[in-house]
Amino acid sequence: MVIAEIKPFEEIKNLLKKYKKILVAGCGSCVTVCLSGGKKQVELLASALRTARKIESDDVVVGEMVIPRQCEPKFVDMIKDEAGKYEVILSMGCGAGVQEIAERIENIPVLPALNTTFIGMADEQGQYLEVCAACGDCILSMTGGICPVTRCAKSLINGPCGGSQGGLCEVSKDNPCVWQLIYDRLVKLNMLYLLKGISQPKTRSVHPRRMVREDLKLKKESTKGV
Ligand code: SF4
Ligand code: SF4
Fold first, then answer.
1. Are 33 and 72 in contact (CB under 8 A)?
2. Is 65 exposed, middle or buried (0-12, 13-18, 19+ CB in 10 A)?
3. pTM for the full model?
4. How buried is residue 93: exposed, middle or buried, by Cβ count under 10 Å (0-12/13-18/19+)?
5. Which atom, in ligand 1's list, is nearest to the CA of 136?
6. Does the pLDDT of residue 217 top 80, yes or no?
């Protein structure tokens, strides 16, 4: 999932200082799971904003909603009428969610309440680990389902650097050497032979990347014979 964290409250408050009608919009997907932008966080942030402005004798209207997925056009379109009642949308979605709203609701500014950090998973309660850099050429089939692109400090894709000691990464002793993890997992799977394979260097992408699925695109109507 996409991992994100809430910006410092003072930063959010500052972003909103000129607005009197604010819609706080959460997202029901990744940021709900990582407890950054779901229903509860929307309620808490909206309430904190009301209180902060009230203390400053500056009353505001703060609306709340959770969009099932902010990164999906049809869900953003569904909130257009409600959003039209506000001067600004404070998105508690990831960066894709903020941009999807900006793309589809042109006449109302959208501001980010979150800092989007990485694609990750929870490795324990309240702790998230980056596990995918979206490299566009997945090699997990060769590495026992553990990503060296992301989890090796040097992004080495054909084995360790040689600096690992006691199973720990030489760059950061807080992290295991991912190649030790990969080796241990392949031993368990009896698939050590996979380490004989060579992964090709990854080409550096020019941003923004784009993926085209011809099978999903709307067919253009033929004009032949018209
Ligand atoms: S190799 Fe790693 S970074 Fe690339 S797609 Fe797979 S998990 Fe993501
Ligand atoms: S010690 Fe392991 S994880 Fe750390 S940089 Fe070297 S190969 Fe990568």
1. no
2. middle
3. 0.92
4. buried
5. 5
6. yes
What confidence tens digit (pLDDT) does each residue in 176-211 have? 999 999 999 999 999 999 999 999 998 878 899 999
Pocket flag, ligand 1, residue 61 (CB < 6 Å) = no
What is the Å distance from ligand 2's center to 125 Cα?
Answer: 25
The predicted model gives 2-27 an average pLDDT of: 98
Summarize pLDDT for 74-132 with one digit per residue, the tens: 999 999 999 999 999 999 999 999 999 999 999 999 999 999 999 999 999 999 999 99
Atom of ligand 1 nearest to the CA of 132: 8
User: Pairing mode, if any, of strands 21-27 and 61-67?
Assistant: parallel
Q: Which of 154, 173, 174 to mutate to test the pocket of ligand 2 (most atoms within 8 A of CB)?
A: 154
CATH 3.40.50.1000 fits 2-117, yes or no: no
Start-end of CATH 3.40.50.2300 domains in the chain:
2-117
- Contact 70 CB / ligand 1 (< 6 Å): no
Contact between residue 136 and residue 172 where contact means Cβ atoms under 8 Å apart: no
Indicate the residue type of 11.
Answer: E
pLDDT at residue 102 in the model: 98
**Ligand 1 center to residue 71 CA distance, Å?**
21
